[in-house]
């Protein structure tokens, strides 16, 4: 069982007096936490703090009780992997299979090569994501959605204990969004802890686990999806008219923009 938690995390955005305030969150193996908040509120920044890529003004991030900043890069990579926001993914001129194998780098020695088992795992992941036909393409030839799927597969090659995903379905069509949601649920059942950011409350509804909302002052509150995804709470964090209702034909809550 792995636990990732923050204690009273404060962070000021560069050149700005605003930031994240007193963030307390916790996630453990098999849990999924969806983080929602409006543009520029600090969701990606929070993921970078959790990964130890940014240093908080105060407070700390603990992985199994150890400060993330005290872990070596290799130790960190055994715990945590990131699927970055699509705009920030640098496409390297590798074919898709080799790109996925880069995901194993943290678990390999300096001069070792990927093993046949790693290649098989990469091919199995591509097949699971319906991307097996992409395997020999150059990454720079991929569409935005194809690159997003391949980037998720690369992070899974790292075999982390907690997976952090920054808007993992932003570039995906409905079928692929459903596939990623189902994949995340399967992985959580197998023991992976998952933290993702999303702009779509419907995804948090479908994932149906933990939800964290960041409000306009950079404070985070979290709880079970059913307590957090309400018309009042979402209207407050997005500062716009929207509605959360139970839709009998979908047999679930649905969030829509209202007039
Ligand atoms: N490299 C940077 N240099 C300076 N300021 C930055 C940098 N990256 C982000 N910021 C600022 O930090 C704040 C939080 O940004 P962040 O990317 O964490 O927000 P976000 O909630 O993920 O936004 P979005 O939903 O639009 O992706 C913003 O005000 C942004 O302008």
Poorly predicted spans: none
Read across the widest sheet, the strand sequence of neighbours is 7-8-9-4-10-11
Provide the number of structural domains: 1
Q: Main β-sheet, in a few words?
A: 6 strands, mixed
CATH homolog superfamily: P-loop containing nucleotide triphosphate hydrolases
| CATH architecture field | 3-Layer(aba) Sandwich
- SS-derived structural category: alpha/beta
Number of H- or I-type helical stretches = 9
Helix content: 25-40%
What does the average pLDDT come to? 93
- Give a list of the ligands: adenosine-5'-triphosphate
Q: What is the CATH C-level name?
A: Alpha Beta
What CATH calls the topology is Rossmann fold
Radius of gyration: 18 Å
Itemize the secondary structure elements and their pairings.
Elements: E1 3-12, E2 19-23, E3 26-28, E4 32-36, H1 43-50, E5 58-63, E6 66-67, H2 73-79, E7 80-83, H3 96-102, H4 116-128, H5 144-157, E8 162-166, H6 174-189, E9 193-197, H7 201-207, E10 210-214, E11 220-224, H8 225-228, H9 231-238, E12 242-247, E13 252-257
Parallel strand pairs: 4-9, 4-10, 7-8, 8-9
Antiparallel strand pairs: 1-2, 1-3, 1-5, 5-6, 10-11, 12-13
Helix pairs in contact: 3-5, 4-5
Residues 13-14, 37, 39-45 line the site of adenosine-5'-triphosphate.
């Amino acid at each position: 069982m792995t636990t990732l938690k923050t204690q009273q995390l404060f962070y000021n955005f560069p050149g700005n007096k605003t930031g994240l305030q007193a963030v307390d969150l916790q996630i453990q193996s098999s849990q999924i936490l969806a983080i929602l908040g409006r543009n520029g509120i600090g969701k990606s920044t929070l993921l970078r703090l959790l990964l130890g890529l940014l240093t908080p003004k105060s407070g700390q991030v603990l992985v199994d009780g150890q400060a993330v900043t005290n872990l070596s890069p290799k130790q960190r990579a055994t715990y945590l992997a990131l699927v970055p926001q699509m705009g920030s993914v640098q496409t390297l001129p590798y074919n898709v299979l080799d790109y996925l194998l880069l995901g194993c780098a943290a678990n390999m020695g300096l001069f070792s090569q990927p093993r046949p088992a790693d290649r098989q795992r990469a091919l199995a992941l591509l097949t699971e994501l319906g991307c097996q036909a992409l395997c020999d393409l150059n990454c720079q030839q991929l569409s935005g959605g194809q690159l997003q799927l391949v980037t998720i597969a690369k992070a899974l090659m790292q075999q982390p204990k907690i997976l952090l995903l920054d808007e993992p379905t932003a570039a995906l069509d409905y079928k692929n969004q459903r596939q990623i949601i189902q994949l995340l649920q399967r992985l959580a059942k197998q023991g992976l802890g998952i933290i993702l950011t999303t702009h779509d409350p419907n995804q948090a509804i479908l994932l149906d686990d933990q939800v964290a909302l960041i409000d306009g002052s950079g404070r985070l509150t979290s709880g079970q999806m059913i307590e957090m995804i309400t018309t009042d709470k979402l209207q407050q964090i997005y500062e716009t008219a929207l509605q959360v209702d139970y839709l009998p034909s979908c047999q679930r809550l649905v969030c829509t923009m209202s007039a």
